[in-house]
Amino acid sequence: MSKTKLFNDFxxxxxxxxxxxxxxxxxxxxxxxxxxxxxxxNIKVKPFYNTDDLDRKTINIxxxxxxxxxxxxxxxxxxxxxxxxxxxxxxxxxLIFTIPNDKIKIDLLLKNINLENKTVYFFFQFLSSEYIKxxxxxxxxKTVNVHYNVDIIGNLVSSGNWYHNxxxxxxxxxxxxxxxNAKNTIGVNxxxxxxxxxxxxxxxxxxxxxxxxxxxxxxxxxxPNFTFTVSISGNYFFEIAKxxxxxxxxxxxxxxxxxxxxxxxxAVPSKRNKTLYDYNVNMLRTTTECMAASIGGANTIxxxxxxxxxxKDNEFGERIARNQLLIxxxxxxxxxxxxxxxxxxxxxxxxxxxxxxxxxxxxxxETTGGFLSNLKSHQIQKKIKESAAKxxxxxxxxxxxxVGTNKYQNKEDKIKEDLELYPFVKTNARKxxxxxxxxxxxxxxxxxxxxxxx
Length: 454
Known about the structure:
CATH class of the largest domain: Alpha Beta
Shape: globular
Helix content: 40-55%
Structural class: alpha/beta
Order of helices and strands: HHEEEHEHEHEHHEHHEHEHEHHHHH
CATH topology of the largest domain: TIM Barrel
Number of helices: 16
CATH architecture of the largest domain: Alpha-Beta Barrel
Oligomer: single chain
Number of domains: 2
Strand order of the largest sheet: 6-5-4-3-10-9-8-7
Distance between the termini: 67 Å
């Protein structure tokens, strides 16, 4: 049978005809009230989509091959080195190191690791051009792709203070950029906004406004490459669209500065919807979130262990988390299809709407002084709090369901004796330049009340 004649016997169905058929099947029920729902981003989601929903051709967004990442917090160089070697043997492809201080010896950390054609992400909990020079000197003769993720604004956002002060931090940033030759230098931590309760439109707008502060700083010289760290939550199709919209927005923003460099996206499941009780459900949540990150076009995905919010790092939880990604990549072949979301009218429509709404919010931020100015006036914090409160109310009213926690609870479930980490917001009274943006899980208050009754 000729493929060109496969659909010749089927006539096209218009949007109007679809709606008429649906209206008949509804037997008098209102179409909008029954089948159309509205997301927290004020996007109305319809029961079907077609070409009429796109006001232009489908969006051509490159979807790179994605790698499996292994995140390692470095407390001891030798132990972390062994952990990295073991993870690479068991399927990890990229390494993500969090470095807490400048006492960590980079040669011991990377000893015997085959860095050829590997990607290594560093996150530093301090700001030091001298330390980054050590990393650069150790790796410069190797074909390793190093991402330094220097994010002085991200530190201000999460801690409320600069590392030193505005001027000193930017001077150090300039030194680092010179040392790294502007390659993969800048990081933008979008995860903070998501985990604090920002809507997807806010996450996208704040991400590019955050990035724009760096672009403004570097506009007279070579612009470094950017890496966005993004948390993925449970709204599957919207999260796919969010990553695609981020690339679209970055392309639009970068063009204004006459640079055509693409951004790197490092994706990880959100902590906001993770729970203490019925914790095995976290594995289901992270699986769909990692799948969304894959289809959305992340460069590297590292998974969150099902017990990460209450257990210290452990081999079992990390192996399961890594194996989830291996199953998605090696058994489900999510790395085989090129741009799997292309042409899906629903995803294309959401992508466009998210990008347009985020761009509108970004412009509003810029007309009121820019991202740093809005942080200083606490407008960003205020808007995120408002969005978080609305989401929290939906959770409290069981309209946003976390199975096993606010609905379908197992009353016999006990967790108190298993807690190795404090899983709730920690209070630390201190003087800050701005009000920090605090990450908080939806289930915290409910879980604290249940723990009291154990």
